[in-house]
């Protein structure tokens, strides 16, 4: 078993780092007790979920099996966790309602997308990545981040953004999803079992930014202090 | 798109463009936030300075007004009273032998009344303007203040200064400390029901501290500020201190009573004397 993993790691080092770097912010959240903030609790859940999915995908990839099913299934969950974080950051009730509606709507949309992309669902070997859902997820998350930035500027309550944990989290998300937004739909066509068009560096950009995103999360969580949170 | 090489480049360019935008967005938010904060702070500073100036002017004009009243009292009423005393004395001498007992009594009563009034006027003028403070400094002034109060014999007031020679401070600072001390002691006498008051004065590295402790019933300053019971005294202390960047801290010592600790940073002594009005320079000559 182990040599198989090792061989995969050597073949795809950046992807492997991206899988296991998730542990860093995850441990930091627990260590800094950031989970007392509901937003960070959701981030913790997101990271745990992401780690599980990534490890499963890592395992199946090492075993040379098609793992795109997990990739597809994870999309609505990622969106729910991440947009849930914003749920606690905004105060407007109308906005919260829209957010909940968008979670449900997005779930339905993803299921539809999976079904549409895979006419034969039971044929797991030829399972394909979704065409729209990942991009839509990116657009929605970026929109949320920008909204939050607008709120920050408008309310003017944070004296130093560099020590404000959630700003780092938002920056990480913004960068990661920006890097992914154009590549996601291409996956639908390229990441198939028989016809693997090599995207080369374009393929690694999102992975690199996934790592960067985890690092930015870590910086943000590092700045978290329960005392400060209590003051808010 | 057939050519995968072309596709690769297109994707790369698009992703990089998107990333650049994201970077710009983040930097913009950081920059804009910082600038707005600085502006806000500047405005706040201006407002604070303005308020302080207002307060300063108000207190200054209060002192000036006190001086004016003191001078008027001294110059007009004081002079008239002196003249009245003189006339009465003359009258007493002129009618010396031919007065009946009753007349003699009335005469003596008027004389003592006038004398008492003169004393009262002098006391009031002295209370209005702390002359000792201006002439001899804080230590003397506080000692004099205590001395006057010490006549009430079930109250002991002790005063302790850190050093023998307390260097003279800027006039404004001395006056502020003196008025604060006055209010704190007055409060202790009025509200605390105490038998001992202790005043301490100390200089610690650029900070002058004044501590007034009593052994009375004590009070909770937080509650006092919120409740409508608060008078002008504690507020006045705070506004006086705000002008000089000072702070005040109320404590509740374990043995009971109340303790207030005011701190003011030392200021350079100003060369110019504040007020031209100085009714008491002439006082000695007059008396
Ligand atoms: N040393 C003290 N011991 C107990 N209570 C005090 C003491 N000093 C102040 N207080 C309480 O705090 C209240 C507020 O004091 P403050 O000096 O502001 O007002 P005041 O003395 O009642 O009125 P003013 O000073 O305007 O004549 C007082 O009413 C009193 O109840
Ligand atoms: Mg008072």
TrEMBL record, chain A:
Keywords: Membrane, Transmembrane, Transmembrane helix. The chain crosses the membrane at residues 12-31, 43-62, 68-88, 95-115, 135-153, 165-187, 199-224. It comes from the Bacteria. This is Uncharacterized protein.
TrEMBL record, chain B:
Residues 68-268 form the Histidine kinase domain. It is an enzyme of class 2 (transferase). GO terms for cellular component: membrane. Gene3D superfamilies: 1.20.5.1930, Histidine kinase-like ATPase, C-terminal domain. The keyword Aminoacyl-tRNA synthetase does not apply. Signal peptide: none annotated. It catalyses: ATP + protein L-histidine = ADP + protein N-phospho-L-histidine. Its EC number is 2.7.13.3. The chain crosses the membrane at residues 12-32. InterPro entries: HATPase_C_sf, HATPase_dom, His_kinase_dom, Sensor_HK_TwoCompSys, Sig_transdc_His_kin_sub3_dim/P. This is histidine kinase. It comes from Dyadobacter sediminis.
